[in-house]
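Q: Given only this backbone (338 positions), what sequence would you predict?
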């Protein structure tokens, strides 16, 4: 029997901690078969005790040696496993940090410039109703100006739409607060346009409004001059071109001197040296009245500009689609922005 146990010990294997523990229980612990053999020693006749005892010690020693061997084998196979998964003690490979989206950067810059001259930031819903997007802004019903905006209507209800500009936030602001009001409204807007390098169905605006007693066109011009020079540098020229918007009178388009060719002529400015960055004007008295502000007492100016266009001028992005494609080769170029 003792020889059988010895043979069992010699041939034992352990490929897991569980099996190692089983070996320990069976051959090493107090209640192991080896322990039982020792317990039986007292029943062995005296003349055989010595030889039998030596034999048992041999078995005990063999069990302990084997146990050590099994532990070592298991450990080294463990480190082989680690090799398969790479060296677990190495520091982890760096996770690439993302970069700020250029539109976010430029929007933040615009906000900072206006905040420094006393404008706060207002927000409103991207899903708008007809009243805030059109009617309160003096768009007559069935007026072609509504079509100018290529509106996305939601379902069949023509009253609910994706805002085509952030001017609806101006309406909300003027109906909820009384002048003096000085606020800008950055946000995403939607128009049903075919997507190309120069047009997109979703883009970003920052609009602004200033309503108080005696606000004049001079204030409008100075504010936008200030903005252009802060944004693009002291030498930037600004020009206003007469225009039409239902919600402003008079209205003007805002052009700045082309930042790409500096007047020498390029595709972006179509060889005119000027690039349009937005629209502006004095808030139409009808709009003030629609928002319960007395146009006899208050006047105001408003403006709106395209964040994509300003970003294009700052970073020479020549295709609007790049902003939304999330191509890392594009985004990585803005790593230094913060
Ligand atoms: N809401 C106009 C647009 O999206 C821009 C604008 C705002 C023009 C305020 C004048 C005054 O085209």
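A: Predicted residues:
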């Amino acid at each position: 029997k003792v020889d059988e146990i010895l043979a069992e010990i010699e041939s034992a294997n352990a490929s897991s901690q569980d099996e190692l523990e089983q070996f320990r229980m069976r051959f090493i612990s107090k209640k192991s078969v080896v322990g039982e053999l020792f317990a039986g020693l007292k029943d062995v006749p005296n003349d055989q005790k010595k030889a039998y005892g030596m034999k048992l010690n041999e078995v005990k020693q063999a069990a302990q040696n084997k146990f050590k061997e099994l532990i070592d084998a298991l450990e080294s196979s463990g480190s082989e496993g680690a090799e398969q998964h790479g060296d677990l003690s190495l520091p982890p490979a760096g996770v690439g940090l993302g970069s700020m989206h250029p539109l976010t950067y430029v929007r933040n810059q615009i906000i900072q410039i206006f905040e420094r001259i006393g404008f706060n930031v207002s927000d409103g819903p991207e899903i708008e109703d007809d009243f805030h997007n059109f009617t309160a802004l003096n768009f007559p019903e069935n007026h072609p100006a509504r079509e100018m905006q290529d509106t996305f209507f939601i379902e069949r209800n023509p009253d609910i739409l994706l805002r085509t500009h952030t001017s609806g936030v101006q309406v909300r602001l003027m109906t909820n607060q009384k002048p003096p009001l000085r606020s800008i409204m950055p946000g995403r807007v939607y128009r049903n346009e075919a997507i190309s390098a120069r047009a997109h169905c979703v883009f970003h605006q920052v609009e602004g409004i200033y309503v108080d007693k005696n606000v004049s066109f001079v204030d409008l011009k100075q504010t936008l001059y200030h903005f252009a020079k802060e944004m693009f540098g002291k030498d930037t020229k600004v020009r206003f071109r007469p225009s039409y918007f239902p919600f402003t009178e008079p209205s003007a388009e805002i052009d700045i001197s082309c930042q790409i060719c500096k007047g020498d002529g390029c595709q972006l400015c179509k060889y005119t040296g000027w690039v349009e960055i937005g629209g502006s004007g004095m808030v139409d008295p009808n709009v003030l009245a629609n928002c319960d502000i007395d146009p006899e007492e208050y006047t105001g100016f408003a403006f709106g500009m395209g964040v994509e266009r300003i970003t294009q001028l700052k970073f020479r992005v020549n295709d609007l689609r790049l902003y939304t494609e999330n191509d890392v080769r594009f985004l990585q170029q803005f790593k230094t922005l913060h």
